[in-house]
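User: I'll paste a sequence; please echo it back and then give the predicted structure.

Assistant: Echoing your sequence first, then the prediction.
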Amino acid sequence: MGIVEEAHNVKVLGSGEKTIVLGHGFGTDQSVWKQLVPYLVDEYRVVLYDNMGAGPTNPDYFDFDRYSSLEGYAYDLIAILEELQINRCMYLGHSLSAMTGVVASIFRPDLFSKLILVSASPRFINTDDYYGGFELEDIEQLCQAMESNYKAWVSGFAPLAVGGDMNSVAVQEFSRTLFNMRPDIALSVFRTVFTFDLRHYLSRVTVPCHIIQSSMDVAMPVTVSEYLHRNLGGKSIVEIISTEGHLPHLSAPEATIPVLLRHISHDITAHASSS
């Protein structure tokens, strides 16, 4: 196993001809895909990895400067693909990793046949001409709450993000992976995610994109997915699913997995009307 593979806890499952790489969002790790993976391994080569800073990674490897922008994560993704000698893959990313895939696909479009973007937002903060769902003051208050009492913050944030009460399995699972992160790293990643502005990148994306979002997501309005669809440089398609929360693959796998499988197998480049 190479250095990059080891650092990111890379796992390769299945032995299909086509490769699909799964990237997780903020506060989770590769275990968030455990309900999807069994549906993929018979047909695809499946690559799982942890973002640097996620609970199972070595916190000593977390570079606060490198991961203050999405480019750091994008370079990590490219390094993983290169070390595994993957010349082309489908990439399924959630939230932070969805936008990581977008950036990586601009740097190395040859590596990606398509991107499947779950709960993807190029910017969470509102501007005069853009509605992302949050005011800057909202994000600052959340960051202050994380700094003052991380445990209490998780107890409030997890049910809000997942969409459910504290006793639900999905909320407990998201709380577990949040608690696995070192609080100062969690704060840094949270701040990066919720303050980035990647809108200027969108027109440079040439890889086909499948955009998937919950109909009720407290972290982002449905208009964000429509914004992505309008502004991405390549072909794209949007599907809004009747689920609640920012992590539909965790909170409503029975509704989300069939949608993901359909987008994995369906190729929008064959349908010109999807652009």
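Residues 70-83 form the longest helix (14 residues). The domain at 3-123+197-274 is CATH 3.40.50.1820 (Rossmann fold).
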